[in-house]
Structures are given as C-alpha cells and as structure tokens.
Amino acid sequence: MRTALRTTLTFLALVGTATASVVTATAAGAATGAASSTSSACVATKTIPSVFGGWKVKLVSSADRGASAKLLDERGHVVSTVDQSRTVDSANGLRITGVLSAKPVFGQRSEGGSTPWKSTAFPVLSADCTQSGKLVRTMRLDSRTSAQIFKVSAGHYQARVYQSGKLVRFIDAHGRAGAALFGSRTLVLNPDGTTVTWTGAKTAANPRLGRYKLANGAVVKIVKRAGVYGAQLTTGHGTFPVEYAKGRPSVQQDDVTLVVLGADGTLSGYVYGKAQKPPVYLGA
C-alpha cells in the first residue's frame, strides 16, 4: 500500500466547522571543564561548570525553542535563565550569542566591566533539526501565529512556527511529511513544500491506548512501546504500519485522511470533505 503525499493541496476546498478550521498554503515557488551532555530528537543538553565555584550551567539546544541556559546553584535550584526571551543577564554574567542560529554560543563571567567572557558552544543538533535553506514564504496562521517555510533542496523543506514573535515549533520534511502541534492547531509540511493546517479535532495529551474513530470512520490505534507512542491508521485502503512519534510528531495520510501523532500521544486528525470532530475512543 502506498502512503500518498498530497501534492495538490492547494486545489482542494478544505472546509472548517465549529470544532475545526483549516488553512492551506500553496507549494513554494520559491565545552570546557568537566561537562556532561545528552541528546534526543531535536533537543540536546550539556551541563558545564559555572564560573561561580560549585555552581553549574545547563545548556539546552532545542529546534523548537532555540538555545537556553540555566544557572544552577549547589542544590540544583535555578538562579537565572537566558533564552530567546532574554539573551543577556548582566547581573549574573550570562549571555547567548545567536540564540536561534545553528551554532549558538554561551558566554559567562563572574564580574562585569572589561572582564572577558568565557565562551562555550551549545551542543549541536543534527542537520534535520536545524533551519537551513532559502525562505520561500511566510504563512499567517492567526493573529499572533505565523510560519516561515524554507526550501533546503528538492524534496526537503523546513518550517519555523512563531507565536507573538517567539519560536515555538520546528518542522522538517525530508522524504516524508513533518508536523507540529501547538495549542489547538496542527500544521503539516510535505516534502514538496505544500502545507495543511487545522484547529481542533484532536485528543488531549497522554490519551488512553486503544482504537479511535475519525470523522469518516477511519480507525487509528494508539500503542506505546518503550515509553514512545505509536499510531496505526486503518482506512478503506488498508492498514498502515505503526508509526512512532519518537521526539517528533509522526504523520500518516491517504487520499482523504490525515493523522498526526504527537510525542506526548496527542492524536490529531483531519478528513477532507467532512465535518471535523475529535477522534472518538472505541476501546482497546
């Protein structure tokens, strides 16, 4: 069975109801010291010594929110944070250079004035977790939310979602569709740059495992393995393999059904040409 990637979204009349509204967009025309680090899908962390003896700094690189650094005292309590909202804390000698760039740098110092900054690179994310390519268009999703669409290469697009000027989600579509869930909205980006987005029509986070029915009768089974949620879509075309949302949302779609599963188990579905309703739990 073939998983159809819809390349003609802009020619479809997508409808909205009281529970779901839809917007479509056309295809684009266009470390130092004793440090410890960990990484997962599009999030990487590293802990380094602070210039204040006995304290530490936790550095986090996130595709969804950019770079952030937390100054921790000897008990692990947060003393100060710098991130995209505040890139410099002069009082505590913290700063981030290039907070939303591919290679942000953390700086710290124990005194002000002409005291030099001690610089440490943030942990590096993989290429598919880092915005690159050419900006081809910007989508307005609502009064405070927009998405920038970037073309990396043929069959590879990325997107950044901003709310009130702050980065909140990152999407990579490379050989397969990518998606983001934020608030009540779902946004899907296809590898050819086409997009579809809707509000509502989804479950709460951490839903019950088992089967859910969509507006057109299609069934999605939510499973969990080793702490990771997975979804298996069954439509009139047959049953898809289980897709796991390990760190990033997974996407499954056929000609009329589109399903997104978030890493927290949130299930969001859209059915073309149907009044949209949240998935209905059928049982295990």
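The record above closes out task 2.4. Task 2.5 opens with a second protein, given below.
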Amino acid sequence: MIDGGLKVEYLDPELWTHLGEILRPLSELGQVLHVRRLASGLYRAVQCSRGSGTVCVSDSGCPFLDLSQYMEGEELNTERIFRDFYDIMEIRIYTMEGLRQCFAESQKAELYQLDIDEAVSEIYSIFQSTAGVAVVRRKEKEERWYFERLKRLLGDKDGDHAYLLWITNGGALYFNSILEMRKGRLAGISTSDRYGGERDYNKVLALMEKEYRRKPEVLCMELSECRTYERICGF
C-alpha cells in the first residue's frame, strides 16, 4: 500500500503540527509489554506507559513491572496480564538469542526492496516466527499497527485515486491532507499548501480534480468527531 518511493511534500507547517492529534484515533491500538526471559528462567518486563501497577526498580533506575504474581511454575500467564492491564494489547516475550536472530533477519537487504507497509508486515512475521520470541495478542485485536487501519479506511483499492482529508475545529480549518494513490499504493502525501496555501475547501477540491483528472474522495469532519473515533475507527 505504501510505495517505497513515497513522496512527502508541500506540508503546511501550521496544519502539519496537528498531525499527532489526527493520527491518535488510528494509532491508539494499546500498549506493547516487552518481556525478556533471562537465562535463569525469570522474566523482566519493561513498564509500559501506565501510571499504576506494582513496579520494581533495577540498579540502573529503569522501572520494570513485577511479574512474579503472574507466574505459573516457569510460565507466564499472559491472560491474567491482559485482564489486569486493559491497555496492554500485545505481549512480546524474548530471549537474548531470539532478539539477536530477529534483528539479524530484519536487516536483510531483501526487506529494503519492499513497499513500506510490506516491510513492516514482514518484520512482524519475523518476530512471530523466530525461536526464542513469542508474540501474544488479545484475541479481539487483529490490527498490529495503524497503517492496517488506514488501509481499511481508504478501502484497500487498486488503481489510481486521490483523497482529501479535511478537518475543521469550530468551522475553521484545523488540518488537511492530500493522499495520492497510484496502482493501489500510497505514492504521495501533501496538504493544500501544494496550491499556494489555499484554504478554501471548494477551491482545493477543484484544483485537485484538475491536477489528478478525477474527482477526489473526501473525508470531511469536525475535530470533535475525529476525537470520538466514530468516523475513523467505527467502520
């Protein structure tokens, strides 16, 4: 979906500072708990960005989750962790040798020949199939990163398309983005700054139709709608 030669240009600096706010509904897929299995058989987990929970601190001062209460013999009860920590959506359990193997496989030259989303998907597959690494997800969560959600939002279409995301806040323009798809791949990202900073909705549509020789597909909403996730995630 994301062309390896993706071109990002004409980013209106004022509008683009709002990108994080716009991506939040797509990217909030929950936290990943990284767990290392030590040679002794014990587990050590890096604390996710969660303010509660029992935390022990190493000699270096780095916080770790105390997993002793989640051990059943020598195995980690991941279902209990999911139950107690609602924002953890994925648990990755590593041995040091497994990590080394994953990093080695992820650096192979073949990955750099793939489109961006294909490369990320392949890296996920490497983590899921390497001995010494286990990836456990909540059963109801299938998406692994936000471009999988974006792909569904855009309809996963073949061919050439142009999209306009237009978000207002109290009627005033808050953010816009122009996405160009070529042969089903995201080939270009820009804003209305490509038209000299034009911020009139109808004029931008007309200029896009003239440039791309097709009527753009539009997702237009108020910022409050975006924040509720209804229009972005509830499809």
